Structures
1.
Amino acid sequence: MLKDKTVVLGVTGSIAAYKAADIASKLAQSGAKVLTVMTGSAREFVTPLTFRSVTGQPVITDMFDSQSQFSVQHVSLADMADAILIAPATAQIMAKLVAGLADDMISLTVLATKAPVVIAPAMDHNMWESPVTQNNVTRLRARGFTIVGPGKGHLASGKEGWGRLEDTEKVLGALRMTMGRKGDLLGRRFVVTAGGTQEPIDPVRVITNRSSGKMGYAIAEAARDRGAEVTLVTAPTALAQPVGINTIPVNTAREMNQAVAKAVLNADVLIMAAAVADYQVASPSLSKIKKEATGRLTLELERTPDILGETKGSFLRVGFAAESEGLVRNAAQKLKSKALDLIVANDITQADSGFGTDTNRVVIIDRAGSVEALPLLTKYEVAERILDRVNALSKV
Ligand code: C5P
């Protein structure tokens, strides 16, 4: 969604300014045109050359540079911006924005723009917790600005507390969410599941699978980025909790079943991307199972609830089928037996798709029998294509 969008990145004078170079780089890698604006104090921490190098675009530092196409005479930056991201944002810039000051290129641009604004504060924790700053944050939120972070942890002052610039992924998630607020899924309620469930054998051991959760998280984020209200029911993964998504962590298929049953009560769409265990241990041991010197250990397994099969309601239902043979035939059968609207079939024998990878090659089959084979795409792109199909179906 950032491709060919113009993002104005405001960098202000916090030690976290060096981290803004990573944000700028990731934005540029996503295809955005990044125009960096730096305050004088930001330039004390990091040079404009860094940003020019990672974005391939000019860096704006001077309001009165008559040579610059972005000078104050024409507030062109404010007009060109599809979004403005201020990262890191000091207490000072937030106070200026609240007051409507326009004496530096960032505050001037924000005052003059109609584009969405995202602010990632970074400062000492006493400054962050000061009632003045907190009041300013409330007022900026009331103006519709998104505030992401700060995080908690080690601060440059040597202390621990709230004030760290939020992680790049979260800052970019907040930006994408804010830019997508008026997207084509505005107001639609999605429930998405992700990850591989873990079925206990005893207090320390589980039966699980190789699902990374990446496909489900990509769907949840892509739906959020198009304005949907998203609940993500997730089995354990190594992925960070996404910004702006109601995330419900679960461990087992049974827990996922309960969480999904509750979440779908007022949902428009259920997308089951989770790799749900088909079997659970019939009676998990309450204490750690001791190993014996010889012989075998037999575990008795029983079926888990079929979540898709059991959840009923008037929402659209999308399932996944991970297959190692007869991809389309088996997926089409599942679509029928689980009464789905769409099924997304994955050939898990291919190295570049399926479990753990960042890319996926899938076939989408709908209830009318049409079969759409997609090329190799990133999981986010696959998510977009699934959402396009969901959107079209829900209009029928
Ligand atoms: O039958 P199979 O497990 O291959 O079906 C896959 C689809 O069903 C996936 O969307 C998966 O999330 C869902 N599923 C489920 N409950 C289970 C097992 C799988 O909802 N117990």
2.
Amino acid sequence: MKRRELLLRGASTGAVATLLPALSTSSLAAPTPQFGPGMPDGLPMPPPLAGPSPRLPETDPSRTLLERGWRFHEGEVAIAEPADHNATYLSVKAGNARGAAALAFDDSDWQAVDLPHDWAIAQDVRESANVSQGYRPRGIGWYRRLLRLDKSQKGRRLELHFDGIATHATIWVNGSEVAHSWSGYSSVIVDLTPFARFGDELNWIAVRVDATAREGWWYEGAGLYRHVWLVSRPAVSIETDGVYCDPVHQDDGTWLVPVQVSLSNVGENMAEAEISTRLLDPDGREIHRTGGRISVPPLEQAQVVNRFDPGTVKLWSPDSPVLYCIEVDLLHDGEVVDTRRQFIGFRTVRFDPARGMVLNGVETKLKGVCIHQDHTGVGTAIPDALALWRLQRLKAMGCNAIRMSHNAPAKEVLDWCDRLGFVVMGENRLFNPAPDYLAQLEWMVRRDRNHPSIVLWSVFNEEPMQGTHAGVEMVRRMRAAVRKLDRQRPVTAAMNGSFYNPENVSSVVDVMGFNYYQGDYDKFHALHPDKPITSSEDTSAYETRGAFGSIPAQQVITSFDKEAASWGATHRDTWKMIAERPYVAGGFVWTGFDYHGEPTPYAWPTVSSFFGIMDLCGFPKTAFGIHSAHWRDDAPVIWLAPHWTWPEYEAPGREGQTLEVFAITNAEAIELRLNGEVIERVPAADRIMGHTFQVPYRPGRIEAVALRGGKVVARAVHETTGAPVALRLTPARQALASDGEDVQAITVDCVDSRGRHVPTANLPVDFTISGGRIIGLGNGNPNDHASEKGSKRALFNGLAQVIVEGDASGRRLTLEARTAGLRPARLALARAPRAPRPQVPPVPAEMPITDWRRSASFAQKPDPAFAPVDGDNNSWDFVRSGIAAPAGSSGWRSYRTRFTPWRKVAGEGGTLHFAQITGTAEVWLDGKLVARKTDAAPAALSAPLSAGTGARTLVVLIEAAQGAASGLTGRVYVSA
Ligand code: GAL
């Protein structure tokens, strides 16, 4: 396609915008209260946040969620070989896909599902399944959905967006193969326009997902695990990801926002497009407006480039994530017909070889974590509200950077990163500059290049070819592809060795990324003093949440930050290496959260990882306290481990034994007290390594007090609890929105008679819910094989999690938890009114009969048995119902088809429906006359369909009135 360009310049206006949904970023700033062991009741989770989870503003109103009314089949659906030559001939024609991709396939016994959907997480773990993928069988799965497009949609640009399908996928629309996807982390964008059917003629979408394919060595889920959208835009419209507006800081200190809008035209004629572009300030007020006109030839693209000189702006930073908005309207006859909103932030980022990352002129250490898209109970199908909650957990720890390892994240995650204030290393999944794969990298950069959060692109993670000539050539090409699309951000690659090979990729990246190899920082820096350096991945330390002693035989690892992979180091040793070197931009801990799979250093029966700073539920391990002390400067922090419930209420205790106690703070001094008595005072606390004390165990109250200038600024307390007497449910937020989408993680624990969290309880708990549903459960134990679906879960070291989704009724959601011998807990969650986001309505399934052969016209009524000879594809027309035979040719035509009724109808019989027949007609089923239409005027007709298995032959003889159109002018279908 040819590209056209037009350059225009913005003019300042004072008008006030009304369209921008107000969502102040400050209201999202993660709460940073002191929490953890310092909470009086000992629950290591923050108190509930006010209100429901916020929702992201809609940035593309042409999209509607297409997530309800899908059918799912787990496993392959075999396609029979075509029986003969003619069947073979027909099988390869457009629209004629067979098996589960065929229009009329009977999916009535498939499971009804809503998206996002990860079918692997519902599987039981099996030792024979892949260790890295968490011992969960993945396999093949099929999805189908019927779609009705109103006649008014004809002529518009229609797209389907699948934001992520794990892992390989083939997509059919109306029996034509429309897309293949070779990566589970790229969007699949289907141009539906040429395949669409309108009005009563329904559309079938079929997706075959091959999750036997692997792209990672971690749990990847299976199925349509991210959002799916139907997009409807005018014939001339703004393209998907078609607005590029990354602010540029100029040498003279001023800002420029070039806004490049890509348009395309699916219409038949050259069209004039008018663009109006506005820059909105953080309060949604318009501060500048510009625009332009351009003509877009049919089936071509054109680009309009505007520029804003915004003058003085508020800067974006992790501490102050201020967002502006570019709003682009496409106008037709003065009316807005298509709109996109793109949030932007003004910040300068530079990676300096001596000073690390310089953000807005200030050295800013990357206090980062690597994450996968995975959570207990839901696997990879993480609802938006849960994705936000996970990021808020990181923010509360003082984390300011995230590496999206090792793939593009869901778009919503980046939107939240912009709003919460994280800088992000975007990362490509597959290291390959061949066109199919380069397209994945280009898609990612095009989609994500406006985000202020994104500061670096990583083209690979740990590739064995990194120290070869071929590796260098590959990176050169991938970097060049990034450069073409993003003029500003540096490119890195996460290398694990080969840094000193004569040819290695460190020579062709802008920023050197070290995975581990911390002992090489200084050597590399000395050899390449002009090359900026960051740790792209580090740590890989192991902890089981709530365990304070390793038990190798049980595959349990202490949470005292003592054990790490041979290639990694403890949290504290790692950060020391990074913190002490100003030239190292920062680090990315492997990992922020545990994830399914990769159970290193163990294997079965361990099924999830030990690497997380938090467990699979987002419950903090000691590492959370360590990083809070390392990273938070906004508030005093102190963390104390272990809990103080030894002797356990039910087991022989440790009375008199000397216990190891660990405390860490960002304050000046620590005082450790047991039962009010000062045991030890540390006047100059080590913020990085913390302090270990040996304390003879006495039940009661252990307390670590953080001091600054002699004043107590924070304290962490553990008390020896009694036996549990009651369960407790603590929500993440005080309310749940009534939009049918909001979800919440509920913490489950039990308390003793004084209401204190019992950290050692491992009791089985049963849940009942009303006003919503449980979408998953977990407890963070890497060795637990219980299902993460259903309504039961045991506490593990005192904690479990239930994730609930509210329905759209607005009824109060109640969750009850029970275990034998304890008082049950009941939680009533208030509902906050919020309209559901529009969803494409589900369509009740019906069996269509769309494809017919039509004879020539005869003066005499043909015999119903009259048929083209086998293999004759040339004497009878192929026609689809809904299309009339041309007017003028009076006489009789025969319409023939063969169809196999769906199981229910085959067993019980049903009805044949002709929505409209034009002309007089006779309907013959398997050689028998079953209905007759005596009036030539267009009208509906129905006929009984007797029960019977196998293929049926349907013939409709239609006589046209003199000079009039005739035929099967409406849809034909079968109902039960
Ligand atoms: C790294 C790798 C990560 C993870 C980690 C575990 O080498 O990049 O994906 O496998 O090791 O230590």
